[in-house]
Amino acid sequence: GGYAAAWATENTREAIFDAIERREVYGTTGSRITLRFFGGWDFAPEDAASRLPADIGYAKGVPMGADLPAQTGGEAPSFLIAALKDSYSGNLDRVQVIKGWLNDDGTRGEKVYNVAWSGDRQLDADGKLPAVGSTVDVATATWTNSIGAPELITQWQDPDFDPSVRAFYYVRVIEIPTPRWTAYEAMRFNVQMDSEVPMTTTERAYSSPIWYTPSN
């Protein structure tokens, strides 16, 4: 099952409910990935070098679940993102920002940006990233963390920003492939699964969105 995480100021019922009310929360498909996501107008690439990204995030912007502050110039919003792997799960493959907006005809637009990833892979002309690969041994339901990264931290600025269009941004973190529960069951009970049954999975984390509203 999945997990829900709340960035509370302290481990009390009141503080946790306060975090939920302000939407400073994220979810995972099952692993305990740690995820930070901040938006603002002046995050810089060097901010991603900090070992305390939340300190910079709160000082210069707003956290996941919040609205971007009023724009002071014509710049595009910038974001600070930090993800840390679950120590008992797979390394991280990539971090993506998903942007959504409303078109003039009322339909929803969406675009996925690959903003940080492991290894020396390069984006193609369409912004697509080659697959990270897989180390899963289905027969033994094991894998190795010889690919991927234990953490990914980056600063990203929207290259397609239109200040007149409402938009939202959220983060998706993807792990390298690990054995799916079907692989564990096949190994445990010594059974052969049908060829159509998936035997690997990629655990993920999803942040709450950050919203942008035009000032006029």
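^ that was protein a. below is b, sequence first then the tokens
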Amino acid sequence: SGNQRGIIMKKVHKLGIVLLGLCLLAGCFFKPQITKEQQNNVATRIVRNYDVQEIEFVDFDKNLSTGSYELVLTLNNDKNKETIITIREMEFFDESEGELFLNPLGRFKDLKRKEIITGEVDLSSIKIKYLGEK
């Protein structure tokens, strides 16, 4: 019966490895999602702090090694104005209020507003290309 237990343990061990592999594989396929409303909140934060005409959301993913979320975007259809916003908690995207600095700071200095917009921000004049839109 000792040998039989060894065979069962090997099968359980193999099954565990297969399940772990599937979980890691699933992590590659199931990207985190960011809603259109959350993208609008990010756009609002950007418009509060920067004078932009166009925002394109390029990619959104979770960095598996740091656990942070990374949102890639481009401003004014200019590849030199591409940046990654890295945040720890998804709740950050639920707010349209608050500071948002684009890095590297020097790259976006020419777009930085002298006066931050407080209160309502009108996004209707900003061209926004959301994730998943062609």
